[in-house]
Amino acid sequence: MTIDTIILRLGEIYPPGKFTSSDPFRCLISTVLSQRTRDEVTYSATEKLFSRFGTPSEIACAGTDEIEALIREAGFYRTKAPRIKEIARIIQDEFKGKVPDNMETLLTLPGVGRKTANCVLVNGFGKDAIAVDTHVHRISNRLGLVATKTPEETEKELYRTIPKEHWKYINEFLVRFGQDICRPVGPKCGACPIIDLCPTGTSRLTGIK
After folding, report:
1. CA distance 118 to 113
2. What number of other Cβ atoms are within 10 A of residue 205's Cβ?
3. Residue 104: which residues within 8 A CB-CB, separation 6 or more?
4. What is the dihedral of CA 22, 26, 30, 32, to 10 degrees?
5. What confidence category does residue 37 fall into, taking pLDDT thresholds of 50, 70 and 90?
6. Each residue of 163-196: pLDDT tens digit?
7. Alpha-carbon distance 167 to 151, whole Å?
8. With 173 labelled, which of 4, 9, 105, 198 sits at a CA distance of 20 to 30 A?
9. Domains present along the chain, CATH in parentheses
């Protein structure tokens, strides 16, 4: 099994197209909203928030209750609203309205962990980084790419084993693959395009352990 083969096949199914980065601040806030929230709900809540407030200064000056009302559908909105407001304040006051473009500084923002920071580096700044969420962690272990216990360990191992030119795309590939086929419960191994490369999937189909 080669990582290049897996990436090639997934890339044929989920073509990434030409990579373009988005606004770093919108990307940051959207990723914070996405925590424990479905993608479609995250998108809707992000649209509502940024249709009313478009800059760090505007969100920092907004009332927490108004932010809550705009992002309510995202879930955990009473926790996320003050967090978003504080992130906006820090960016406005300490970074002159510009989102930091490095891991070390991003991690100082409230509620920002490595997955969120890497998403911002990839999608906000177009940098080569690997964002490891539950899909990436689960599927990387199922495929035998890593043998790790935590997303942090998975991230470290993927940096070591995946060619750099694939870093920024691996999250998109595995997230979409995890949503469509390699689900947490009841993975659709019979429809998997890389079943021949997957030790756990082959065992599941044949009953061989």
Report:
1. 9
2. 13
3. none
4. 120
5. confident
6. 999 998 899 889 889 989 999 999 999 999 999 9
7. 15
8. 105
9. 3-16+131-206 (1.10.1670.10), 24-124 (1.10.340.30)
